[in-house]
Write a structure and sequence with these properties.
With 223 residues, the protein is mainly alpha-helical. The chain is 73% helix and 4% strand. The protein has a two-stranded antiparallel sheet with strand order 1-2. Keywords: DNA-binding, Transcription, Transcription regulation. This is FadR family transcriptional regulator. InterPro entries: GntR_C (IPR011711), TF_FadR/GntR_C (IPR008920), Tscrpt_reg_HTH_GntR (IPR000524), WH-like_DNA-bd_sf (IPR036388), WH_DNA-bd_sf (IPR036390). It comes from Streptomyces siderophoricus.
Length: 223
């Protein structure tokens, strides 16, 4: 592992220094191994590891390229890792969401357009007063994703998208076991939307905090 780690660090150094830029094709394996003083096997392992976390893109028959290195691409690896969480860490993921998502919602209050607000409202209207838990959770994900995207911060958007996996299960469980969960969720969504229409960043932040904290509080007493 030490040899592979060294190879990873050397490739990382080339990217960080600018010797390799987003979209660049890596030199041939034999040439790069000689340049970096690595064996071809250790270089191959490093490339495999870096492709798993979306730093490199191995194209069969074409070569290996540096990816775009956009936050959305890089943070896909986090989403993959998050899927392996233990049930007892769901509360920790929710706590992180409670820190980040209200801030993103407050940022969106000053940037979100009328068309985006109308689309969010139409999505809520389409659910009706008594949606299934599965439809509600799917709508909830899209509702929050739309608001966070409107914050204009792609890193924040990708982080929160990656954190949604473990909390989805918690929301489904809550909907199945808590009678007023569906109505409460719809009410809180309407309140967040109203604050965004009013361009009231602090009200939007507060309602987003309440919304996530209610799931977190319920789950804390249920585990």
């Amino acid at each position: 592992m030490a040899v592979t780690d060294e190879a990873i660090e050397k490739i990382k150094g080339m990217i960080v220094s600018g010797a390799l830029r987003p979209g660049d094709r890596l030199p041939k394996e034999s040439e790069l191994a000689a340049e970096l003083g690595l064996s071809r096997n250790s270089l191959r392992e490093a490339v495999r590891a870096l492709s798993l976390i979306r730093i490199l893109d191995v194209r069969q028959g074409d070569g290996t390229y540096v990816t775009s290195l956009d936050p959305q691409v890089l943070l896909e690896a986090m989403s993959f890792v998050v899927d392996f969480h233990r049930d007892d860490t769901v509360l920790e993921f929710l706590a992180v969401r409670r820190i980040l998502e209200p801030a993103a919602t407050a940022m969106a209050a000053g940037r979100i357009g009328r068309e985006e607000l109308d689309a969010l409202e139409a999505r809520l209207d389409a659910l009706g007063p008594s949606p299934s838990v599965e439809d509600l959770v799917a709508s909830d994900l899209e509702f929050h994703r739309g608001i966070v995207a409107a914050s204009g911060n792609s890193v924040l958007c990708s982080l929160l998208d990656g954190l949604s996996g473990p909390t989805t299960r918690a929301r489904i469980w809550r909907g199945l076991t808590q009678k007023d969960a569906v109505a409460r969720t719809l009410t809180e969504h309407r309140a967040i939307l109203g604050a965004l229409r009013d361009r009231d960043a602090e009200a939007a932040r507060a309602w987003a905090t309440v919304h996530i904290a209610s799931v977190e509080q319920w789950l804390r007493t249920s585990l």
